[in-house]
Design brief:
about 55 residues; alpha+beta; three-stranded antiparallel beta sheet; 3 strands; about 10% helix; about 25% strand; globular; Amidohydrolase 3 domain-containing protein; Amidohydro_3
Length: about 55
């Protein structure tokens, strides 16, 4: 159980895999989920995808 808690901490010196979307998928209607676009993807703490800031 302790390991599971540590895995979800975003902190300096911790690796992280996550994607930032242009929409709040918890607030939009389910019909709009497929229109959400990735703005940034981070794998092992490294940015592996990032769109222009003028989206």
């Amino acid at each position: 159980m302790q390991r599971l808690l540590i895995m979800f901490i975003i902190k300096e010196s911790f690796n992280a895999d996550f994607t930032v979307l242009d929409s709040d998928i918890f607030r939009i209607h389910s019909d709009q989920l497929l229109q959400a676009k990735a703005v940034m993807t981070v794998v092992n703490g490294d940015i592996v995808f990032e769109i222009d800031s003028a989206y």
